[in-house]
Amino acid sequence: MSVLIEALVCLLLLAGSLFALLGAIGLYRLPDFYTRLHAPTKASTLGVGGVILASMLYFSTRGEGVSLHELLITVFLFITAPISAHLLAKAAMQQRAPVKPGTEGKPWE
């Protein structure tokens, strides 16, 4: 495998790991449910997407071709993460989850 491909795989793995770490930090540090929901949904999707892209690139250059499993995981992830976040946000609005006082507006108004 060429050095360029190895460097690109390493870059994608590092970027994916960084996004996953930022999503986890955002989940821990943000003040209320709505902002906590936003960080891991966006960042973890990008993180897992980067890792899967690195996996696709690595195995496709080894002569095995692109795996259908990796493509299906990517499609499943990019479809289900926003839908589940939307459903969680709607459920929180129905339950009138508390919002940090400095946040503008109320989601249920």
From TrEMBL:
The chain crosses the membrane at residues 6-28, 71-89. InterPro entries: PhaG_MnhG_YufB. Keywords: Membrane, Transmembrane, Transmembrane helix. Pfam families: PhaG_MnhG_YufB. The keyword Transmembrane applies. The keyword Transmembrane helix applies. It comes from the Bacteria. This is Na+/H+ antiporter subunit G.
